[in-house]
Design a protein that fits this description.
This protein is of the alpha+beta class and 936 residues long. Among the domains are: 18-259, Methylamine Dehydrogenase, Chain H (7 Propeller); 268-280 and 319-476, no CATH class; 483-565, no CATH class; 667-817, no CATH class. Helix content is 47%, strand content 22%. The chain is built from 34 helices and 30 strands. The strands form eight sheets. It has a four-stranded antiparallel β-sheet with strand order 1-29-28-26, with no helix packed on it. Strand 2 (19-23) and strand 3 form a beta hairpin. Helix 8 runs antiparallel to helix 9 (445-476) and helix 22 packs parallel to helix 28. The longest helix has 47 residues, at 871-917. The chain is elongated and about 180 Å long.
């Protein structure tokens, strides 16, 4: 289906027009006594004043031949007409290779050089009325009302048929045909005749009125009727394509320009951009021009032009792809729409025409609630996404300014004016159009379900459009961009996030993925939607990505307090710790760190004490912890004193007071005291293959004792470790504070205190006799004041699950073994302690003598052993002593042998040196003097 030609009024003259002719790139316009040469391609204009009235002008061998109203021929060389001697010419006919001169009763050929001359003249049987030429055949209409064919090659005249009314002959050049017109009561009839045989061809054409002017421009036939109607027929199908009334133009005649005439391009008015408001739709576009405007910078081609009585010239422009597409779209059926879109695919994708066609088609589908089909066209048009969003006021509330607008073509604006401005009104109007009055949208369930389905489809369409636009913008986004684009990005991303939140029940992960990528979501707009649909985790991440850590923490606080829930949250405690580690304000960190301690003391203390970004004054934090949680205060003191080794006396004393207070407070409970005493008694009955401290801490992993007792054991272990690692405490005050329990339960602690006071005998008496802790007693002899070795202390810390700060402090503590004499002295004291009850501690005595034989003097130790001690119990000690004595003897023998060997080696080396030096004989001085005296 072909869209009609459009008219372009491209020039106006001030005088009536009687000649229109296309020569090279110029249009020749002839009026009363002027010729105008207008070239729009080269933007030139020339005017020739004449002393005669031109009637006809033709091109011949790059020259122009002109006929005036008096029948005189002129040769137009350049812009200077030269008058010839040829007279009485009625008409000029132009074939492909010559010009034929028609006179009243003869026909001849025109010769141009050296001057205009008529040759090969043939007489005519009747006077001439009208004629046309096709190659070398002329169709004539004479005063006998007969059409005839004259073959110039053989000079044969063939009469054809009679005619009524004014004759009209048109050459159909590309088909070797003539169209001859005859009039009747209904108007006029056109008959196609073969130009060589004179036989009729095809069917006749019926015209509703007489003919004023007719031209052929393949493949169309343009006919101007007397009633000022233009009819366009196809010379292929011989059918009427379009009929157009030109009464308002007062048309005179038509003229063809076979090679195409370049004229200013006519820009369709519907392509002009206007400002379309997004909120206020009461805008009148009637002031916009209803006529197309001409662009002098762009040209288009025409092959048929029209002259009017008013002196204006119009061009018939073949329908462009844009015109054809819009014409098809206006039919509003699927087949026509597909044809229009197929035509549009041949246009550049970034052209205004392609944008217009796809947006026009999308809006038509949108208006008919074909949302899924409209979605792809909206995306392909790449229209301003705010235009689509304007139909969804529930999403855009607060996003658009009251006077916000988008730039769209006028034709699109006019189309939108006929579409309801909200999606709800659009769907309701469509349903009422189809179902009212039989069904009601509000009350009838089937229609209500259809309404809900259409609303869902509209939302899906919007989601698809927004998603595609978001991806397109993300790919095309540069390092810097205009503020308007950034603003559009914010609107786009905000609406996308809202829709993802709405569709949480269908695709919950979509919002999470969108939030995790870079976005421009407007938080104040999106927050109510996220809250409405329970997407608190996504809202928290959004706050975090926008740098508002405090609001993100508030949300996770509510998760932990269980005032809100979100299935996307797996470990809110871990998340809030991560957020707190990003806080840079000390007050905010302190506020939420103290709150976190109430839910997870270790995590809260870790955040407050070891923050990677923000530090809190230790004194302020201690004071705040004291008001919040005493246990946390103690643990923070442990970090400061033990891990960070603060030398502050007040902190150390405060920690000691807490440790002592915890132990004393726990032992006031008779159940705990009883459990502690029972553990001592049980340990005494055990085979002594481990220390008392190791035995007690091992009980922590069993269910034999109550949780309260376990806490008391841990408190005792902390106090014990602190006392052992300290060196400058007021030991007497400590003993006084612990005195109510040091005689019964806190034996280990008392031993440490006595060791620090260098009361070794009393300390060993407690360890060896009261606790019967062989391992600890012997270790004490090597390291007085330290009842736990480093490895044993680490085992106890691990068994008790104490914090790492105790291990740090332990690693910093250096336990140096005492000198051998003092160690031997302490071992003798320990032995004396055992000897006091030798019959009870025989096994301990044997163990001590066996393991410490190296550090005990045999002669000093043996008298201390009671006589009734079984020999078997000291057998190992005596064997080791005897073995050691024998070992020393043999060692001395070996050393003597080694020394003798060394002496022999040195003697041999000296003898060799002496022999090499040679002998020196010297006389004794005394002998010489004696000889001299005898001689005298």
């Amino acid at each position: 289906m072909l869209k009609p030609f459009k008219l372009n009024n491209f020039t106006n003259t001030t005088k009536p027009i009687n000649i229109l002719y296309h020569f090279n790139d110029s249009l020749i316009v002839g009026s009363t006594n002027q010729l105008q040469f207008q070239s729009y391609r080269h933007n030139t204009y020339n005017n020739i004043n004449l002393d005669f009235t031109p009637k006809q002008i033709l091109q011949f061998n790059n020259s122009l031949v002109m006929l005036d109203t008096d029948g005189v021929l002129y040769h137009l060389n350049g812009y200077n007409p030269q008058k010839s001697n040829i007279r009485n010419v009625i008409k000029l006919l132009q074939s492909s290779n010559s010009i034929v001169v028609i006179r009243q009763s003869s026909i001849g050929r025109l010769k141009l050089s050296p001057r205009l001359t008529v040759i090969n003249e043939l007489p005519l049987p009747s006077l001439h009325l009208d004629s046309a030429i096709n190659n070398d055949v002329i169709c004539l209409a004479d005063t006998a009302n007969t059409y005839s064919l004259l073959n110039l090659t053989n000079s044969v005249l063939l009469p054809l048929l009679p005619f009524e009314g004014s004759p009209s002959i048109t050459s159909i050049d590309d088909a070797d045909e003539f169209l001859m017109i005859t009039h009747n009561d209904l108007g006029a009839v056109g008959v196609f005749i073969d130009s060589y045989s004179g036989e009729p061809k095809h069917g006749p054409l019926q015209f509703p009125s007489t003919i004023k002017s007719i031209v052929h421009q393949s493949p169309h036939l343009f006919t101007l009727l007397s009633n000022n109607t233009l009819q366009i027929h196809s010379t292929i199908t011989h059918s009427l394509i379009h009929s157009l009334s030109l009464s308002h133009l007062h048309p005179m005649f038509l003229q063809s320009t076979p090679l195409g005439l370049s004229i200013p391009q006519s820009i369709p008015n519907q392509l002009h951009f206007v400002s379309f408001p997004l909120l206020n739709t009461s805008v009148d576009y009637s002031n916009a021009s209803n006529r197309p405007s001409n662009s002098s910078s762009q040209l288009e081609s025409t092959q048929v032009i029209l002259a009017t009585d008013t002196g204006s010239i119009h061009a018939f422009i073949p329908p462009s792809i844009f015109d054809q597409s819009i014409y098809l779209l206006d039919m509003e059926n699927d087949n026509a729409r597909q044809q229009a879109l197929s035509l549009a695919n041949s246009l550049p994708t970034d052209s205004l025409e392609s944008y217009y066609i796809h947006l026009y088609a999308a809006l038509q589908l949108f208006r008919s609630t074909s949302f899924s089909d409209a979605s792809a066209l909206f995306s392909k048009s790449q229209c301003d996404i705010r235009l689509i969003l304007s139909w969804f006021p529930d999403l855009t509330a607060g996003l658009f300014d009251p006077d916000e607008f988008v730039k769209i073509p006028l034709g699109i604006a006019n189309l939108i004016e006929n579409i309801p401005r909200t999606i709800k009104d659009l769907i309701v109007g469509n349903l009422e159009k189809n179902y009212s009055p039989y069904l009601n949208v509000e009350s009838d369930e089937p229609v209500r379900q259809l309404y809900d389905s259409l609303m869902e489809n509209a939302r899906s369409m919007l989601l698809e459009c927004l998603s595609k636009e978001h991806r397109r913008r993300r790919r095309a986004r540069q390092a810097t961009y205009h503020e308007s684009e950034s603003y559009t990005d914010m609107i786009l991303d905000t609406c996308l996030a809202i829709i993802f939140a709405e569709r949480s029940d269908k695709d919950r992960n979509a919002l999470n993925v969108f939030i995790n990528n870079s976005n421009n979501i407007l938080l104040p707009i999106a927050e109510p939607w996220f809250t409405r649909y329970g997407r608190y985790a996504a809202l928290s991440r959004l706050y975090e990505s926008h740098g508002d850590i405090k609001e993100a923490i508030k949300i996770h606080k509510r998760f932990i307090e269980q005032t809100i829930v979100d299935k996307d949250v797996v470990d809110p405690l871990r998340d809030i710790i991560r957020l707190l580690n990003r806080v840079e304000e000390a007050d905010l960190l302190l506020e939420y760190g103290l709150w976190l301690i109430l839910y997870d003391r270790n995590a809260g203390l870790q955040v407050l004490s070891s923050h990677p970004r923000t530090s809190i004054d230790e004194g302020i934090l201690l004071e705040a912890l004291g008001r919040t949680d005493k246990v946390a205060e103690q643990e923070y003191l442990e970090i400061l004193v033990l891990a960070r080794n603060r030398e502050d006396t007040g902190m150390r004393q405060a920690l000691l007071d807490m440790l002592i207070g915890n132990v004393v407070e726990a032992l006031k409970d008779s159940n705990i005291s009883g459990d502690m005493w029972r553990l001592i008694e049980e340990y005494k009955l055990q085979k002594h293959d481990q220390s008392y401290a190791q035995y007690v801490t091992a009980v922590l992993d069993t269910t034999e004792i109550s949780p309260m007792t376990k806490n008391a054991i841990i408190s005792r272990l902390k106090l014990l470790l602190f006392l052992q690692m300290a060196s400058d405490l007021d030991w007497n005050s400590i003993e006084t504070a612990l005195h109510p329990f040091t005689e019964s339960t806190l034996l280990f602690e008392k031993a440490v205190i006595l060791g620090k006071l260098e009361q070794h005998s009393a300390a060993l008496n407690i360890l060896a006799r009261n606790l019967r802790d062989t391992f600890t007693s012997q270790h004490y002899c090597a390291f007085p004041g330290y009842i736990l070795s480093g490895s044993l202390a680490r085992k106890c810390i691990d068994n008790s699950h104490l914090s790492n700060c105790w291990l740090v402090a332990l690693a910093r503590t250096s336990m140096v073994a005492v000198a051998p004499p003092l160690r031997s002295h302490l071992l003798r004291i320990l032995l004396d302690v055992y000897m006091a009850d030798g019959d009870v501690f025989s096994a301990e005595i044997a163990s001590l003598l066996g393991s410490q034989a190296l550090h005990l003097n045999f002669l000093e130790t043996l008298p201390r052993i009671p006589n009734d001690t079984p020999l078997i119990s000291i057998k190992d000690f005596m064997l080791r002593q005897l073995r050691r004595t024998e070992h020393k003897k043999r060692e001395l023998s070996i050393l003597k042998g080694v020394a003798a060997a060394e002496n022999l080696t040195k003697t041999e080396e000296a003898w060799l040196a002496t022999r090499e030096a040679g002998a020196i004989i010297e006389e004794a001085i005394d002998d010489a003097n004696q000889v001299d005296g005898n001689d005298k």
